[in-house]
Design goal:
The protein has helices at about 1-10, 10-45, 45-75, 75-100, 105-135, 140-165, 170-190, 210-220, 225-245, 245-255, 260-285, 290-310, 315-325, 330-340, 350-360, 360-380, 390, 400-425, 425-430, 430-435. By secondary structure, it is mainly α. The chain has one domain: Growth Hormone, Chain: A (Up-down Bundle), CATH 1.20.1250.20. Helix 3 packs antiparallel against helix 15 (about 350-360), helix 6 (about 140-165) runs antiparallel to helix 14 and helix 8 crosses helix 15 (about 350-360).
Length: about 450
């Protein structure tokens, strides 16, 4: 009987249970992020503080990823998934204790987020590698679409729910819900069977942790198509990360601190991601996955970031937010399907972590730059009477927050150029033909 239950809770059924746990967990995280963003803005009034909150979470995630990937391939992946969720829950408990006792300061969040980010480094390779062993490769894109749906649903309901509940249960109540959501996520992982991949054939002596940490980089560097694909993400992540920490400062500055409008704009982002995820889950994505990546980047940048930057009211902000996130499931889902089909499951932890570092190391650099750039140059330069206002006033109306709007337009145009550039290199646009699927090279 026990064996039958374990068999039932595997495959796509098992993945769906884990996915449902993540839906609940991501909702709690989204509500907490919204509440803490409002709190930090009210305390500091600076874009730098909000950018640093994201930087302190994201930088440890990226820097830890090579070691995390090596350990994921050595350890039980189910255990690693549980530990990553548990660490996130402990971080939220720490915020709850500090906030409820009235001693929370912004620098406390930097430390707590760094702790949570370090363990987050294990989550992406562990979940990605686990999916590869739970379901068939024909279901990879659909699974990615479902994960995109989870992120989008939390993006829709999290900000609105937090905005409504802040007045009744406050930040303390939202933190309690978030803590409970991590319990649900861990219980979902405990309930399913997650197969371990067969160890690769080779010498009996195991390589050192350092060798394993570097393995993914060596693997990718020997394959120009995979390296080129990740370099496209390197540049698009830099342009996007200059802007996205500034969404809350832009809306709050231009609306006089209207948190409901901020929640509406952030929810529009979630609706866009949800719509894109639904279509991707039902459709399965384009036949050539690389088109989903490159064309998706171009459309997301032009219809999303540029329109958002040009907007000066809630409707264009919501439209730009919707379009930006609408294409994200196609970009990430298509890219994930390429990598899951090309890399053998036994080495996905190491390769995926190296892949993540190459693609995302530009993001913390951008986050470190964007706060001071905005507070010290762009905002004053595009305010009424500022240095850039006379020459660029035809494009962006000078005033509070106009400097952030200008940055969105500039980076949106840059992002479209980055997506287009991928088509100019045969190694990138033909990646699916140049790199064989892992199951075609076995035996």
């Amino acid at each position: 009987m026990e064996a039958e239950t374990e068999k039932t809770l595997s495959g796509m059924t098992g993945f769906t249970i884990v996915w449902l746990g993540q839906v609940v967990s991501l909702l709690g995280t989204s509500m907490t992020n919204f509440a803490l963003t409002i709190w930090a803005w009210e305390v500091t009034g600076k874009a730098t503080a909000l950018a640093l909150m994201q930087l302190f979470f994201f930088a440890p995630t990226i820097l830890m990823s090579p070691v995390a990937g090596a350990l994921v391939d050595r350890w039980n992946r189910k255990l690693v998934m549980i530990l990553s969720d548990l660490a996130a829950g402990l971080g939220t408990i720490a915020v709850f204790v500090l906030y409820s006792t009235g001693v929370l300061e912004v620098w406390n969040l930097y430390i707590i987020f760094a702790f949570m980010g370090a363990f987050q480094a294990f989550q992406f390779p562990a979940y990605s590698a686990a999916v590869s062993t739970m379901i068939s490769k024909e279901q990879y894109t659909r699974a990615s679409g479902m994960l995109g749906l989870a992120n989008s649903a939390s993006g829709i309901f999290g900000p609105i729910a937090a905005g409504v509940l802040l007045g009744s249960i406050g930040t303390t109540g939202i933190l309690v819900f978030d803590i409970a959501s991590f319990v649900v996520a861990i219980a979902a992982v405990l309930a399913v069977s997650i197969p371990q991949p067969a160890p690769p054939e080779g010498p009996a002596e195991k390589p050192s942790l350092l060798d394993d940490s570097l393995f993914g980089f060596r693997y990718i560097l020997r394959r120009p198509s995979l390296l080129g694909l990740q370099l496209v993400f390197f540049f698009i992540n830099f342009s996007g990360s200059l802007c996205f920490p500034l969404i809350a400062p832009l809306i709050l500055t231009k609306t006089g601190g209207d948190t409901l409008m901020l929640g509406s704009v952030q929810s529009a982002m979630g609706v866009g991601g949800l719509a894109g995820g639904l279509i991707l889950s039902a459709w399965g994505g384009p036949r050539r996955k690389v088109d989903g990546v490159l064309a998706g980047m171009m459309l997301s940048s032009l219809l999303g970031m540029v329109v958002f930057g040009l907007g000066n009211g809630v409707y264009l902000w919501m439209f730009g937010s919707f379009m930006n996130l609408f294409f994200l499931p196609f970009i990430n889902g298509s890219n994930q399907a390429i990598w899951q089909s090309k890399i053998p499951p036994s080495m996905q932890g190491r390769v995926f972590s190296a892949r993540a570092l190459i693609a995302q190391i530009s993001a913390p650099i951008a986050m470190l730059i964007t706060g001071p750039l905005t507070d010290n140059f762009l905002l004053p330069a595009m305010d009424v009477g500022g240095a850039l206002a006379p020459s660029l006033g035809w494009l962006i109306e000078a005033g509070p927050g106009a400097g952030i709007s200008l940055l969105f337009v500039a980076m949106g145009l840059a992002g479209a150029g980055i997506g287009l550039s991928g088509y100019l290199f045969p190694h990138i646009r033909n990646v699916e033909n140049l790199i064989p699927d892992h199951d075609e090279t076995q035996g």
